[in-house]
Design brief:
191 residues; 7-stranded parallel sheet; 3 helices; globular
Length: 191
């Protein structure tokens, strides 16, 4: 990269075309190039950046598969926001997604993704938003919902109102327009 000290890179809402800008600075923290006209695939090198926290390439014309997010836990567990939504990405959600222990928001909606929801999604214990709508995904949602619930979660409405339970699990799930199955433990969401 010709920008070795780049920390934040914003090109949001413009008319840029071509491949994604390859800003592989070891200090890159924030990469946001959504709402443009970028094409081609997402380079794997982004997911080897130690400091990357926010990665947003939504609303472009990207193709290919979601990159394999390889590396040691220390290399990629700092990502909190990951959006590749509204592109033309195909293939499956990589099973190593579970290594993103600090992931809060995962937005992969409006793509051409197929396959089963990876079991490793249940390792994302602080995930708040899981938006996967309008793909071709299948599998069971139960293991994801159950994993997001604290073991000591008490659905008693009076405890929730009195703020005695500090539940901060998933607040947004959208898997509509897929082929996802399972039963929803509604009693866990009742107030």
């Amino acid at each position: 990269s010709d920008l070795p000290n780049m920390l934040d890179f914003y090109l949001h809402e413009n008319f840029f075309t071509g491949s994604l800008p390859q800003v592989f600075s070891p200090h890159l923290y924030y990469y946001e190039v959504g709402y443009n006209y970028f094409t081609h695939s997402i380079p794997n090198e982004f997911f080897a950046l130690h400091q990357l926290n926010y990665f947003d390439v939504r609303y472009n014309y990207l193709t290919g598969t979601i990159p394999y997010m390889a590396g040691s836990t220390e290399q990629y567990n700092t990502v909190e926001f990951l959006s590749m939504a509204n592109n033309f990405l195909s293939g499956t959600i990589p099973s190593d997604i579970g290594g993103y222990y600090y992931l809060v928001d995962l937005l992969l909606y409006h793509n051409l993704l197929t396959g089963t929801l990876p079991q490793t999604l249940n390792q994302l214990h602080i995930l708040e938003s899981l938006l996967l709508q309008d793909n071709r995904l299948s599998g069971n949602l139960n293991h994801i919902i159950n994993a997001s619930m604290p073991k000591n979660f008490d659905p008693d409405p009076m405890d929730i109102i009195a703020n005695q339970t500090n539940y901060q699990g998933i607040s947004s799930i959208d898997v509509s327009a897929n082929q996802v199955t399972g039963s929803i433990p509604w009693q866990r969401f009742a107030l």
